[in-house]
Fold this sequence. Notes:
Layout: H1 3-21, H2 33-36, H3 51-60, H4 63-73, H5 76-79, H6 83-94
Helix pairs in contact: 4-6
Amino acid sequence: MNIRNICLKSACLGALAFAMVSGTAFAGALDSPDDMSPFFTDSGMKTMKPMEEFKAAFMAMPMEKQEAMKKECNDAAMSKPYAEFCANVQALGGAN
Length: 96
C-alpha cells in the first residue's frame, strides 16, 4: 500500500467520523425541535396548534427557515413522518 492510498483512506475515515459526530448539523428544519416547537401546543410536540396559530408561527419565522421547511415538505421521503405539519405548510402555499 502506498502513501497516497493511506492518505486517501485517512481522509475518508476522517470525513465519515466528522459526519457521525456532527450529524445534528446535517439535520433538516423538520428535525429541529427548536424550529418545530412553535407549531405545537405541548412540549412533547404531539398536538399541533390550530391553523390560525400555525400560520402566525410560520410567518414569524425567518424566510430562510420557511423556505427550508417548504423544500423539505415537498420531498416525499422527508415529509412522510411530518404529514400533518406538511399539509399545513402546503395549505399556506408551500407547494412549488
